[in-house]
Structure formats: structure tokens, C-alpha cells
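G., the chain you wanted modeled:
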Amino acid sequence: MKIEQATWLHEHYEFSLAELCELSGLSETELRELVDYGVLAPIEPDARDWSFRADRLVVARSARRLRKDFDLDPHGVALVVTLLERVRDLETELRDLRAKLPRRQQPS
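Predicted structure as C-alpha cells:
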């Protein structure tokens, strides 16, 4: 059984490119391709050493699983990850809108 160190993905925590590679299981080349395709965005794209918000680890790990499980090329991974994030955003928006609706009274 493999035990991994748990890291709380605090919104203010950042990972370097090397840390993101190690934690996600993707190579630096693969991560750079995801940046090129717009799936991952460094905090400061023009910086010499990229760093990423901690929540990008979830995206990078999803990309690794998609690449491995479905044998997708980088473009295919980028497309699927983008669509999955869009679906999650829409589900969140729908949940928020439903929460604002008045509750219907149940018939007695």
C-alpha cells in the first residue's frame, strides 16, 4: 500500500513547476503543453520560474489520468479537461441558482 503525504489545497498555496510535476505525475513537457493549450495557467506567465495555484493540482492529476486511461494526445487531454471544468462550473452555477429559488410548499 502506498501512503502519500496529504496537502491541503489552500487557495493561497502555490506549487512550483517542479512540485506540480512531482505531485501530478506529469512531465515538465506535458505540463508546458497544457499551459500552451490554456488548460493550466501559471500565476505569472511571464515569470522566469512558473508557479501555480494549488487547485491546479487537481486539474493536472485529472489530465494525467485522462492521458493514461484513454491514451489521449496532449490536445485531446486539453479538450476533455476544458470541457470537464466547464461542466463543473455550470453545475455550480445551477446549484447556486436553485438555492435562490423559493421552496415549493408540499401539499398537505
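The first helix runs from residue 17 to 24.

Shout if anything looks off.
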